[in-house]
Design goal:
Layout: H1 3-21, E1 26-31, H2 38-47, H3 61-65, E2 76-83, E3 98-99, H4 108-126, E4 132-135, H5 143-149, E5 154-155, E6 161-162, E7 170-177, H6 196-200, E8 206-208, E9 211-212, H7 218-224, E10 240-242, H8 246-249, H9 269-272, H10 276-280, H11 284-290, H12 300-312
Helix pairs in contact: 1-4
């Protein structure tokens, strides 16, 4: 082992210690290279129109696959997971209107972005002159692919990143930096013969194992799609009005999920008492107050109204 190898190993270990100090649950490292295996998959997915109306997915194709085109001088991709599995959940009975668990509290972009800025500052203080950029679902970065490369988990048949220790209820973030670090290797796939996510999806969005048709996903229909939800999905969205957790809820690996430790992700008291009628009678004023810093603001009041009417009329 050369002196350079030892330094890369020591720096990688220090960076993982800093990540733990800041509350990240998992941290892994990969070389900032071209994602060769992902290129044909992404091209096919786009060609088949499985991105629906998400035209932005067609942009920056090369940058999605090569972080060196996104961050000048990039040498390492540091992938991080931040748990959002709640201790207390909203009712999810047949008559209840439901929102994805990731949207229970404050928008994760705000929470994790601040942590990433602290993360980069700590690295610069403890290791030296390191330059890079922070990403939280805000740029053409293939987060799940990089997390897989870094050994944090595998991409399951529902296209979510799954960890053996804690399932899949995690936000993924990256720090792309100009520092050579000892990389971690990818993890094996542990989905086996299980097809629970495929069998449970009410809109048949998981058209084949590892092949999700985004244009049929309930999360896409209730968040990304800005026009009317096609009538063909009537009765199939299972009362989800913002996002969907079905394929995660049925995943056997999520029996290992542990409640998060982030106070910003807790359910607001007012939301705990919401019933179907409250969603139906929601005013714009109440929406602005209850969801002031919530991910639900992405759908906007009009979009949420559309989703509620779609499942209640």
């Amino acid at each position: 082992m050369t002196v350079s190898d030892i330094i890369q190993q020591e720096n990688a270990l220090r960076i993982k210690e800093i990540a733990r100090d800041l509350g990240f649950d998992f941290c892994g490292i990969s070389r900032a290279d071209f994602l060769e295996e992902e290129a044909p998959r992404l091209e096919k997915w786009l060609r088949l129109g499985r991105h629906g109306k998400m035209q932005y997915m067609e942009n920056h194709f090369d940058k999605r696959l090569d972080p060196r085109l996104l961050v000048e001088g990039a040498k390492s991709v540091v992938s991080l997971l931040y748990n959002y599995y709640p201790e207390e959940t909203l009712p999810e009975g047949d008559e209840d209107l439901k929102i994805a668990k990731y949207a229970y509290g404050v928008d994760y972009h705000f929470v994790i972005k601040d942590k990433l800025k602290d993360f980069l500052s700590r690295i610069q203080e403890e290791i030296g002159a390191v330059d890079g950029r922070c990403f939280v679902d805000s740029a053409p970065v293939m987060e799940k692919a990089w997390a897989k490369q870094a050994g944090l988990g595998w991409i399951g048949k529902n296209s979510n990143l799954i960890t053996r220790k804690s399932g899949s209820f995690f936000f993924i973030a990256e720090l792309i930096i100009d520092l050579d670090l000892q990389p971690d290797g990818p993890m094996a796939d542990y989905c086996g013969t299980c097809t629970r996510c495929i069998d449970a999806c009410p809109t048949d969005a998981i058209s084949e194992p590892y092949g999700v048709d985004g244009s049929r996903c309930i999360s896409y229909l209730t968040i990304e799609l800005k026009e009317s939800i096609p009538e063909s999905f009537k009765g199939h969205t299972k009362n989800w009005v913002f996002g969907c957790d079905i394929c995660q809820d049925v995943c056997p690996w999520n029996r290992f999920s542990q409640p998060h430790r982030e106070s910003a992700f807790h359910l607001p008291d007012e939301l705990k008492t919401f019933q179907a009628r409250d969603w139906q009678e929601l005013t714009e004023e109440t929406f602005r107050r209850v969801f002031k810093k919530s991910p639900l603001k992405r759908a906007k009041y009009e979009g949420l109204q559309r989703n509620v009417l779609f499942v209640t009329e």
